[in-house]
Every structure is written in structure tokens, then in C-alpha cells.
Amino acid sequence: MKTARLGRAPGMGGIGITLAVAVVGFAAAARAHEHHGEGIPEGKFISDDPIDSILWTHILIQIVAWGILFPTGMVLGIIRSRWHVPVQTTGAVLAILAYFLGHAHKGRQFAPNMHAKFASAMMLVLLSQVGLGIYLKLHLERGFNGRIRPYIVKAHGIVGKIMPVLIWTQFVFGGFAALGFCFGDHTGQCLAHFIMGGAFIAYGVILTILLLVGQLWLRRTGRSQEFFDSLVIAAWGCVNTFTEHRWGGEWVGNDLQHTSMGVIWWCAGLVGIWLSRRRDGSPKRNLIPALVIILTGFGMSAHPQHLELSNHVHTMFGYTLMAAGFTRIIEISILLRDKGATTRDGSDPNSFQYLPPFLLYASGFLFMGATEEQMKLLSDAHVTHVSYILLLYSIAFVLFLFVNMLVHLYAVHAFPLGPVHKDADAAGVEANGGLAGNGHLRGDRRVRDAEEFELEGLISEDERAEDEDEDEEGKVRRNGAARA
């Protein structure tokens, strides 16, 4: 077995060295290439030239590499799929190629921007991931390497899980740079829209994960989902209370409305935290986070705007957000009757439960697409609010689909429930108060295996035999419970 592993190592090392040399070479080429910006008009941040084919190619390749391949490869790594390395390697090659193309284009010129600066940091993150991956594939497990290997595994996993957030940030910066938005006086307003809109989308993603694969984790924490929701709401409210207005200065524009929204967030968040536990300390559902979402949607739907198009988009954003809150209330109080899920393990959610997360995706995109500059650009182009809102909903559907596909890819490997095992598992869970026959929550073993990605060489034979005995004993107990 060791010989076979070492036999694969040179190939992986060769790929890694090639990628490393390519990154360094392309970075040097990028430094040599300068966007002088002589064609940028006074007071603007991009030239009037169109985006050329090279830059469009850069954009499309980066979307494929960073937006599709890397998140998919991350999930494949978690489930220890043999496709993890090929997918991530393909993504790395495409990302390096597109990085070079981004500095070789002609046509539109750009002022110094965060997208260009953040690109170098992203490539360093990519290079570090490639290096860590190569080290793990070399299977160096003796002496000093054996001692540091668990930390390398954790670092590789942490960086891989952080990358989707970094990718999202870089995509947003790319949109700013391409259109010349969010510079100068527009920076604050633009950041407010994209940070809050992105937060609603992130909340929707988290709800999707918890809905489909997170119920076992929630039960292990001993907390209800509303505890964590209310905690974040309270913290965010405190930040908004002291950042939406320059204290000591005059109240201008929508300062009072934004600040009051921050106040109600931390006040309601504290109530939600208090109501998230019963007298005996066990977790309990509550409706406070959903109510906060409804009130936020109400406030944003009545937000005064300068353009009619902006009024329509903000109103639709508020209505969508209120719908997310109302559907959440219906889910918790009517559909689930304060239970955590429709089934003991949450593996079979009701179709209605998909509505609240999706509406959060849609509301996030509506708010991110409602900045002053975007509204003026669309209004000048005579784009109607109906077509624009439908377009934003379409984007929300695409992201919702992609997240569901990734979660499904993880779930079918971490929690493989076939028709043969389903009844036995259900009987074991019911008979043990939510625990499987071996005293552990069903699926823990598979999840632990996934988290121990690349650690197989460190597990001793005695530990492996002990784990196998535990699994076998658990199967016997579950089968006995099923027969009973």
C-alpha cells in the first residue's frame, strides 16, 4: 500500500511544481503589464471602451473555475471522492490561465480597484492550497511529518471551506471594477447594499444546509436553530446601531431609519436568545428571528428613493423579505409544530420548507441590485422594474439550485440511506431516543470519516479494528431493535 502511494506522489508533485511555476511566472507578467488609464474621463473610474473578447474570456473562465469547479471540488474533498484532485487541478489550471488573461486584455481601462488588488491574494490562497494538497498526497507519515500532518489536514480543510466566501467577495469586486461602480461618494451606500444583501443570501445558504444535512449537528449542540439566529441578529443590530449614523453629527437622509432598524435587531435578538431554551435547558423553537425578518422587510419596502425604478425594486425586496419571514413562521408553528424537523434525522424535509431559504436568496439579490448607480444605469436604459426583478429572481434560482446540488452531493455520501437500511435506522433511532443502536447519532461515523479526509495513514490498526468492532456491534443492536 505504501509503495502504491509513493508511486503516485511524483505525478502529483510534478503537477504542483508546474502550477507553482506558472503562478510565479504569470504574477511577474501581471506586474509587468500596467493599465495606465489615460483613456478614463475625468470623474469616472472606467474608460468608455467596450469590454473586449479577452476580458470576456477571463470573466467566463473565472466563473467556471472559481464559481463552479472549486466549490464542487471542496465538497468532493469532504466526502473523500477520487474526483477531488482532478476537479481541483482543472480549476487551478483554468484560474491561472484566466488570471493571465485578465492582465492581457485591451479595450476598457480601469482605475486602481479592489478587484485587481484582491486577485493577488486569491492566487496566493490558491497556491497555498495546491501546496498543502501536494504534501498530503505525498503521504509523508513518519517522524516529524507524522506529527504535523494532522495540522496540515486541518489547515487544508479550513482554507478550502473559507474559499467560497473569498470567491464571492472577489466576484463582487469584479462587478464593481467592470462597471466602475462603488467609487468615491457611492462607496458607503454600495457597501451597505452588498453586505446586507450578501448576508441575506448567506443566511439562506445556511438554512439550506441546516434543512438538508444539519439537523444531527443541531441536536448535538443542544441548541435550537433560533438561538444561533438570534445571536447573530443581536450582534448585527449592535453594529448597525453605532455605524449607520455619525454620532455627534446631524441626522441626514435615512440615518434614523437605519439606526432604528439596528436597535430593533439587537433588542429582538436578545429576546430570541432567551426564548430558545425551555425551563429544563433543552432547546426550544421560537418565532423572533422570523418576526425580525418581517419588520426589516416592512422597513425596506417603505424606504424612500429618488427614482421610480428604485422604489419598485426596494418595494419588491421588502415584500420578498416579509414573505420569507411569514413562511418561516408557518413552517415552525404550523408545519413542524415547534419540532426541529419533519423526521427524527431531518433527512426528508417538507416541500414547503424550501420556501424560506429561497426567498432569502431572492431578497439578497434584490437588495444587492438596488444601488443608486445600478438604478440610474437601468433607468437611463429604460429597463422596466418587472424585467429586472424577474432577472434577479432567475439568478436566485440558479444559486439556489447550485447550493442544493452541492448539499445533495455531500448528503448522498455522508448519509447513504437506502430502502433496506432506512427502516432499521428509523427503528434504532426511535428505540434509543434519537440515538442509533451504538449510542451515537446516526451518520456520525460517516461524518467523522469525511472530516478525517486524508488522515487514514495516521490511524493505527488497533484503532481501526476498534472502530470496526463498534460499527459491527451497532449493526447488531439496530437489527435487533428493528426485529423487535
Description:
This protein is globular. It is 72% helix and 0% strand. 31% of the residues are buried. α3 (84-101) runs antiparallel to α4 (114-137), α6 packs antiparallel against α12 (355-368) and α12 (355-368) packs across α14. The protein contains 17 helices and no strands. Residues 1-18, 27-34, 418-444 and 449-463 have low confidence and may be disordered. The protein folds into three domains: 8-180; 187-414, no CATH class; 419-483, no CATH class. The chain is mainly alpha-helical and 484 residues long.
Net shape:
globular
Compute the number of helices: 17
Structural class: mainly alpha
Q: Helix coverage percent of residues?
A: over 70%
Query: How many beta-strand elements?
Result: 0
Q: Which spans have pLDDT < 50 for at least 5 consecutive residues?
A: 1-18, 27-34, 418-444, 449-463
Strand content: under 5%
| Biggest sheet details | none
Précis, in short:
This protein is mostly helical and 484 residues long. The chain is 72% helix and 0% strand.
Please write out the topology.
Layout: H1 2-32, H2 53-78, H3 84-101, H4 114-137, H5 143-179, H6 187-213, H7 215-221, H8 225-243, H9 255-274, H10 288-301, H11 308-335, H12 355-368, H13 372-380, H14 385-414, H15 419-431, H16 444-451, H17 461-483
List keywords for this structure.
484 residues; mainly alpha; DUF2427
